[in-house]
Amino acid sequence: MRNEDLRSFAIRYGFIILLIGLSVYFSLAATGFFSARSAVFVFQSVAITGILALGVTCTLVVDGFDLSIGSVATSALMLSAYSMVVLEQPAYVAVLLCLVMGAVVGLVNGLLIVKMKVPDLLATLGMMFLLIGLQRIPTQGNSIATGMSLADGSTAEGTFSAAFLWLGRHRFDLVLERLVPVPVVIFLLVALAVWIFLEYTRHGRLMYAIGSNQRAAELVGANVHRYKIMAYVISGVTASIGGILLAARLGRGDIASGNNLLLDSVAAALIGFAVLGAARPNAFGTAIGALFVGILLQGMTMLNAPYYTQDFVKGAVLVCALVFTFYLSSKSSAARKA
């Protein structure tokens, strides 16, 4: 095999081989890793971060970036809990409020970036801090649970409805006996929808064109501003879906439960660049990236690795995957030109 063929093979399949090798290693080193129960834990752990990562992917496609997804998800968690526990609203109202909130945040981010010309990192970073502060004001920084004391001295009498908790805790009786959680099914459906939208629709192709060469996309008549704003709205909505599922799984509004959502979601989206040598944001790669993060964390947990090493390992894997992908891709492009 020639060097060029070997390099092309490594670019396209290197990450998949790494994923398989990691799974085999954990299966041999950790008793019980290769089991249906462990697989469910892996998918359940990545479902929420995977949904958020798919939103980040949409912003990356248009050459943007959204740092506010973690705070949007946590805000959706707190908003759903507040609406049901404090305001005593039904589940569908709580879900609708969260989706509208996510869409509005995404719209504001898009307008700041497109109309006000604020750099995407600064705009979404500012929104992140805004939401972190805003979600704490109604409860004075406390988590939300049934029976909690309110600022006026009264007690919250509302509860999480069974229909809402179903979203986070129910398991479908499919191939495995009651082992497929609803969040996993929602994650797969969102991933499929985003993949079809980006890869097989005119709108998705125009978003890729904008990310590759915005000026060229403008010359062919693409409404660049509209598509960029749409990408951030999608990101906000997917982040709010993640927050809803997290609230439904926990059954309370835990103010600190979304601390790692941003880092894990960004890692999954960026690792997706290395899947099948795509070297670009894509929904399939993001889903595989989320799965990779889940397998890595589940394996480390089952091997009793210290919790403080997990972020280091995730960061090392992310850096290696991106360097490996883009370095080899640049070498391959240089070889073809020569």
TrEMBL record:
Keywords: Cell inner membrane, Cell membrane, Membrane, Transmembrane, Transmembrane helix, Transport. Its main location: membrane. It is found in: Cell membrane. InterPro entries: ABC_transp_permease. It is a multi-pass membrane protein. GO terms for cellular component: plasma membrane. GO terms for molecular function: transmembrane transporter activity. CDD domains: TM_PBP1_transp_AraH_like. Pfam families: BPD_transp_2. The chain crosses the membrane at residues 12-34, 40-62, 67-85, 91-114, 121-138, 179-198, 229-248, 260-278, 284-305, 312-329. This is Sugar ABC transporter permease. It comes from Ahrensia marina.
